[in-house]
Amino acid sequence: MFDDNNIIAGLEIGTSKICVVVGEQNAEGGLNIIGLGQARSRGVRKGEIINPEQVEEDLRAAMFEAEQMANVEIRSVYLGVSGGHIRGFNNRGVHPVVSADREISTDDVDDVVKNAKAINLPAENTVIHAVRQHFFVDGQDGVTNPVGMLGARLEVDMHVIHGHANRLQNVIRLVRATSLEVDEIVFNGIASAIALLTGEQKELGALVIDIGGGTTEYVVYSDGVIRHSGVLAVGGDHVSNDLAYGLKVPLSRAEKLKLEHGNALIAEAAKGQTISITNELGLELKRVNVEHLQRIMSLRIEEIFQLIAADLEAVGLTDYLRSGVFLCGGGSRVPGIVTLAENTFQMNVAPGHASAISGLTTALDQPEFAAAIGLVKFGSLKNRKRGARPSLVSGIKGVFGKILSR
Amino acid sequence: MNHETEISAAAATESSAPSVRIFGVGNAGATLLGALDGTEFAGAQFAAINTDAAALAASSAPVKINLESKLLRGLGTGGDPDRGRALAEEQFSLLKSACEGANVVFILAGLGGGAGSGISPVLARAAREAGALVLAFVTLPFDCEGNRREAQAQTALEHLKRAADGVVCLPSQKIFKLIDDNTSLIETFRFTGGFLVEGVRGVWQLLTRPGLIQVHFSDLCTLLRDRHAENAFAFVEAAGPGRAREAVEKIIAHPLFDDGRALAESDAVLVSLLAGKDLTMSEVGRVMEQVKRQCGHAQIIMGAAVDAALKEKLCVTVIAARQNAAPSGAPSRSEPSAAHASAPMHRDVAAFRSGSRPRRLANKLIQTQLPLSIVSKGRFDKSEPTKHNGEDLDVPTFLRRGVPLN
């Protein structure tokens, strides 16, 4: 019934959960989400693997669930990566057009892109994405396709996202160990942005913040291209940890309190209110002040937003976000977080919904799955570009060739 | 406090006796002030400072400064030095103007409570800024008064040492050695106060009595200025044929000198002899020789004066200044003025210029550790810290920002 080539799977190994989304691409390139699998993640901290065995176990469970639901066999995945080691920056490549008639050829474009990718990275780092922004022909801004134009000097701006090679390889190796192949690795922030943003929003300018368990990724789009990206190794885990410390309760209890009584703003109703913590026999152990709980939480989440806002201010992108800020990830479920973000960024903030994809509405509505859905969408876009996918063997070669050559 | 002011202050006083102001701070200070005999201290100006209007009204001092705030409702500081300090800082200009024009300011206080511990350091700083030489005479609480008062007193003493030119400190507990079981409480306090009063009297006499070997105000300045020293103090009287030997024995056995240890550890000693007309050179020589033998390397300033009224009594005043050893606590954050931070540098510069005692200063440079509290990072304890602009984001935000939870 299904042809393997049309099945695209996105795998996100997150700090709090491992999730697999399966999509089916029809002949016209349209995408339909048909399966979803998730498992609680135990071997990951701040987006990076600390216990491969546990991760492998959880990964198999999530995979099994997704395969069952979609009724397909998953052979390869688009793998989302994150972690505090990942950085994004813009780089410009320059290439003089040497042909006699000054017409820019595809070779010139390839050369300038190559120049832009030739960047000084630390030896242990590798490029995850190098995304073309705009070309400049003799200083003329905003050229999207310079082939066929006349000019003497061709320049291109690239957004380069790079990370620690060994840490990225660790995840890839782990996925390969479960006899899955990795089509490509994708920065989670970009995946989320792809899932949430429409073309129009990318044109207008938007900031996507994915607040995960261990990391918070953010990506800025403007004029239809990625302008900025970054990762903060701070997320929902930090909120729980703060609560455990501040309220002097065990971490598991803090997690529960966060889900039940958490708020990104200090609610009027919470003032002076307390909740009692009981043990399994129903005896009261201690009382916790809800206002304190919400204050601790509010401060941490506000800080995350402030750090992002300061970063955007530093690169001068604050005024380009005309369609506003979009939130996703488990952290965006916190009540009041939209208002808090509006206060911090002083612009429109909306909880993001994976758009322009059809399929399981339960999956699409959940902000946690935005990155995984984005991975599938990323895969479908690649497929559409590439046309028919190459055979499996050459595909694998291609993937690893690419990863290693980066 | 630079050399210029020191010189001008000294020059101004060469012609006339220095202008002296004596402040009693807090209840204990007011009591001590009351114990000073007004006629003996003709020319000195007395002032009482308190936060408690009722106690101040009972004081006989001609000038009364009431530091009060609506917040305290006239109830005093309630034994909290922070309140006293806050009040004093609030009315800093008032304190400064009260010290204006004085060459020497004596501060009498009992440390451990709210007013004495809180106000004295601020008053000392105000007086120094007004250009006066500041000598503080303080008592420390008895052991039976509890740990809290003891701790408050020690903190206040540290602050006072940094703010004042010299501090004469009398730990009340040492008085126990000198009193017997039958001494009543009132007598004990009178006895303790008496020691301090003697100290004030000794310095007073030093400054005002015409001497054969004159101790100038400038000598006192040399001894104390910018040293922030802790001083041990003895005032002994002896009469009869063996009075010189008796006086020396009394000095060495003096409770405040810790069996002569204070002399051995001191680096500057001021000895002033006062006797009737029959004072012989051999007596002066005998006293000085013994003191010199006791105190080894210290710089000695000597003075002698004749007062016919003393007849055959010999009074010896010894002030032994011990340079503040490396501050026992690191500079506390509540320390309000940058003047303190620069004081040690002045001290070094002064020592360098005068070329004296470089050896002693050299081994006083001790690196101290900041009293940073170790915050457990909970579940992030073993993971790579998330550093952002030098801040460790794994530490709860509310702790880093110092948001109180109460």
What does this protein structure show overall?
- The complex is a heterodimer of chains A (406) and B (406).
- With 406 residues, chain A is α/β, with parallel strands linked by helices.
- Among the domains of chain A are: 87-161, Dna Ligase, domain 1, CATH 3.30.1490.110; 200-351, Nucleotidyltransferase, domain 5 (2-Layer Sandwich).
- Chain A is 38% helix and 31% strand.
- Chain A has helices spanning 52-70, 106-117, 165-177, 188-196, 199-204, 236-247, 251-261, 290-315, 337-345, 361-365, 370-386, 392-405, and strands at residues 7-13, 17-25, 31-40, 44-45, 48-49, 76-81, 87-96, 125-137, 140-143, 153-164, 181-187, 206-211, 216-222, 225-232, 274-278, 284-289, 324-328, 349-351, 358-359.
- Chain A has a six-stranded mixed β-sheet with strand order 11-6-1-2-3-19, sandwiched between helices. In chain A, strands 14-13-12-17-18 form a five-stranded mixed β-sheet, with helices on both faces.
- In chain A, helix 8 runs parallel beside helix 9 (337-345).
- The mean pLDDT of chain A is 88.
- Chain B is an alpha/beta fold and 406 residues long.
- Among the domains of chain B are: 1-208, Rossmann fold (3-Layer(aba) Sandwich); 374-406, no CATH class.
- Chain B has helices spanning 3-15, 26-35, 53-58, 81-90, 92-99, 115-129, 147-163, 185-208, 217-224, 243-253, 261-265, 281-295, 338-354, 358-362, 397-400; strands at 20-25, 45-50, 63-66, 104-110, 133-140, 166-171, 211-213, 229-239, 268-275, 299-306, 313-322, 387-388, 391-392.
- The A-B interface holds A 45-46, 50, 84, 232-234, 237-238, 241-242, 244-246, 251, 289, 292, 295-296, 299-300, 302-303, 307 and B 375-380, 383-384, 386, 388, 393-394, 396-399, 401, 403, 405.
